[in-house]
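Milestone 3.1: sequence recovery, worked example.
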């Protein structure tokens, strides 16, 4: 289907590949490493690739990611602009990455070459399935006839309605990212502590609670969802997991018990975010009161 403008995101976003293909969502590639192997993530990864990634983490392979340089945006956006199409780009939270800043630098450069074209860059203040929810909304807005600038304003006005509640299994990944101290990681691991995190209104990550054991932490995520969601009929919920299908299925069962009329998208976390959370991470992402 011919679209009036192209919706882009970076590949840290989690959204079903079939939905992205159907609605013409395009992605900026990002680089990551697994042990000594450097990889480029260009599209939504297949499940077997993700399983190998998280198995590698379990086997001790270190994982890293790198930022998208402004020139990458120029290289990807310019052919679209040359075709006479406008662009709406949704970036990973500026509180977690410099992708938004890089996209703005590229947009400024490209607007000098293509003054008649619109290039709208939006800081999602979100991550993973939260970006998926915002991308779904951006597609719906485009179908309603919203121009790129109007769509971008809507996303900025509503992005703080996206709630992310998640737990991690291995504190050492948060330690490497500077989210918890080495002492906290060692003691927490010994005591079977599961940190519970959320994304704040400024788009940064906050470790705001903890639970002993995975089951208690999962139940806490469900409680936060129940308190923050309006539980409307058909509400869209993302349940993300880092190769933890059993726990994700448990979360799905619990949220559907709270709101039987909800629509759940359950999928594995991309390696771009998973590199910093480790295997076993689980999340509930939904519209509500952050």
């Amino acid at each position: 289907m011919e679209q009036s403008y192209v919706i882009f995101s970076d590949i840290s976003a989690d959204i079903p590949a079939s939905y992205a293909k159907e609605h013409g969502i395009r992605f900026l590639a990002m680089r990551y490493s697994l042990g000594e192997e450097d990889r480029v993530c260009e599209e939504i990864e297949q499940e077997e690739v993700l399983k190998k990634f998280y198995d590698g983490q379990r086997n001790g392979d270190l994982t890293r990611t790198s930022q998208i340089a402004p020139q990458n945006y120029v290289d990807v956006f310019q052919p679209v602009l040359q075709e006479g199409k406008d662009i709406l780009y949704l970036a990973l939270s500026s509180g977690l990455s410099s992708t938004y800043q890089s996209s703005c630098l590229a947009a400024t450069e490209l607007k000098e070459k293509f003054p008649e074209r619109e290039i709208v860059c939006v800081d999602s203040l979100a991550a993973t399935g939260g970006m998926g929810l915002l991308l779904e909304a951006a597609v719906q807005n485009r179908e309603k006839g919203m121009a790129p600038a109007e769509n971008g304003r809507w996303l900025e006005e509503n992005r703080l309605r996206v709630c992310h509640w998640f737990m991690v299994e291995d504190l050492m990944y948060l330690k490497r990212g500077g989210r918890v101290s080495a002492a906290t990681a060692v003691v927490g691991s010994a005591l079977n502590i599961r940190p519970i995190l959320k994304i704040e209104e400024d788009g940064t990550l906050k470790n705001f609670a903890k639970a002993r054991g995975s089951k208690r932490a999962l139940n806490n995520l469900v409680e936060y969802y129940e308190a923050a969601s309006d539980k409307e009929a058909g509400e869209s919920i993302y349940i993300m997991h880092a190769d933890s299908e059993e726990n994700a299925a448990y979360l799905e069962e619990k949220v559907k018990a709270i709101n039987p009329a909800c629509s759940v998208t359950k999928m594995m976390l991309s390696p771009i975010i998973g590199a910093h959370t480790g295997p076993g991470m689980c999340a509930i992402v939904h519209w509500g009161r952050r």
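The mean pLDDT is 93. The longest strand covers residues 205-212.
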